Amino acid sequence: MSRQATIVAYWGDKPPLLAALLDRLRALFMDELGSAFRPYAPEQVHATLVGVERLPGGMRNRRLARVGPCPDMDLAGLRQRLLESARLPMPVRVGGFRAGEGVFVSRGEEPYTRSFSLQGDKAVLMGWPVVGGEAPSGDLDRLRREALLHHVLHAWHEEPGSVDDDLYMRIGLVDLDAGRTQCAAAVAAARHLLSEVVPLRFSLAAGDLSVASYVDEALPPSSTEVVPLAEVSDWSSLYD
User: Fold this and answer.
1) Cβ(117)–Cβ(184) under 8 Å?
2) CA neighbor of 46 nearest in space, from 9, 100, 7
3) Are the beta carbons of 22 and 45 closer than 8 angstroms?
4) Domain coverage including residue 55
């Protein structure tokens, strides 16, 4: 199977407060669902910035090709843009959003609800880049949108006018046969935990970015090769 590549943040080392929160969420889900929850390894949990998956036989971006003809990805240019971006480091907030606060809306939902969810069988923690510690800044969406200048289309930008300012991290997979009631209870417990914590504030910096070369999109340590973005020189080798 050929390898693909994606640009991610926090694969491996994480801000200590974020790592501690992930441990708490992982333990909570294991308590609630037992063997029906398959947690990711701590180092495996990551946030995707933008996928740079290619079509076979070249370097055209897989997602951009879905919407029309496209040239080869300019990955060296994208790398340089990210490393030199004035948008980085950007402040990020995770947790501390109470039900009904209505600070902002993400995909039609308040942050209390969006902070943790099941997306299919994936248990997902969500945070946002913020201005003044509260409202999303829009900088993550803008950074992802700038990838298009290098012929790379972000997954959630396929629809015209779409916005994706979410910093999302999968913590593991859920066996949906466990039952809707059990799954809903686990999600509710995670949302409550997140609403009660002191908001986690940390930075997303260029030094947090890596390129993951993978055969499994979950990026397990056993089969994933991760290279700091600043150290990438031969992009083609990441797809071999």
Assistant:
1) no
2) 9
3) yes
4) 4-230
Question: Which H helix or E strand runs over 162?
Answer: none
- Give strand ranges (E) for the chain: 4-9, 37-39, 47-51, 90-94, 116-119, 122-131, 135-136, 167-174, 200-204, 209-214, 225-228
At which residue do the structure tokens 């509260």 appear? 134
Say whether the peptide bond before residue 89 is cis (omega within 30 degrees of 0). Answer: yes
Exposed, middle or buried by CB within 10 Å (0-12, 13-18, 19+), for 13?
exposed
In a domain, 238, yes or no: no
**Within-domain flag for 240:** no
pLDDT in tens, 189-217: 999 999 999 999 999 999 999 999 999 99
d(CA 145, CA 82): 12
pTM higher than 0.85: yes
Q: Is residue 190 part of a domain?
A: yes
Judge whether 9 lies within some domain: yes
Structurally, the chain folds into a number of domains equal to 1
CATH number at residue 176: 3.90.1140.10
